[in-house]
Amino acid sequence: MDLPLTTDTMTRTTPELPRYSRRWDAGTASLPEARDAVAGLLARVRPAPSARTVQDAQLVVSELVTNALKHAPGPFTLCVEVVPDPVALRISVTDSSPHPPRHRPPDPERVGGHGLRLVNLLCGALEVTPLGRGKRVTASVALD
After folding, report:
1. Nearest by Cα to 113 from 74, 66, 47
2. How far is CA 128 from the centre of its chain?
3. Which of 10, 89, 113, 140 is deepest in the core (most CB within 10 A)?
4. CA angle 128, 134, 137 (to 5 degrees)
5. pTM for the full model?
6. 94 by DSSP, 3-state: which?
7. Would you say 75 and 110 are in contact if contact means Cβ atoms under 8 Å apart?
8. Looking at residue 9, what is its pLDDT?
């Protein structure tokens, strides 16, 4: 007995990866809002990252947003998104200053100026992309 063959076409959709984006004018950014956005975004990731990973990501966001606030006239944009392979949280801050961030020599007596060192320790690398008007600074935090 011959059975009719049918072909089912199944479309597989990949769920959207969590993403957050916010633009601020000069001097209007909210560090607590940026940190909360990271925590909220990471709360939607499965499996959930550890509390330490969430804190590390919040620290990186704080440092990058603070640098934009201190060293660029504004406006600036924060974009935070989960990326696959390997799973990481990519954090990008685009600002209006054409000057790349400067690493300052270590000085345990100095207050401030240690943020980029912390970002490098937590992320391993910092990517700076010059743009027509300003730059984009990007760091990635591995999600465990």
Report:
1. 66
2. 13
3. 89
4. 25
5. 0.83
6. strand
7. no
8. 40
Report the b/e string of 101-122 with b at 16+ CB within 10 A.
beeeeeeeeeeeebbbeebeeb
In the 8-state DSSP scheme, what is residue 108? T
Identify whether the C-beta of residue 90 lies closer than 8 Å to the C-beta of residue 103. no
Structure tokens at 22: 């916010």
Pairing mode, if any, of strands 76-83 and 134-142? Answer: unpaired
Q: Which three-class secondary structure state does DSSP give residue 7?
A: coil
pLDDT per residue as tens digits for the range 70-115: 888 879 999 999 998 789 999 999 999 999 888 777 777 877 777 8
Nearest in space to 134 (alpha carbons), one of 91, 81, 73: 73
**Cis amide linkage into residue 47, ω under 30° from 0:** yes
- The Cα 144–Cα 27 span in angstroms is 34
Largest CA distance in the chain: 87
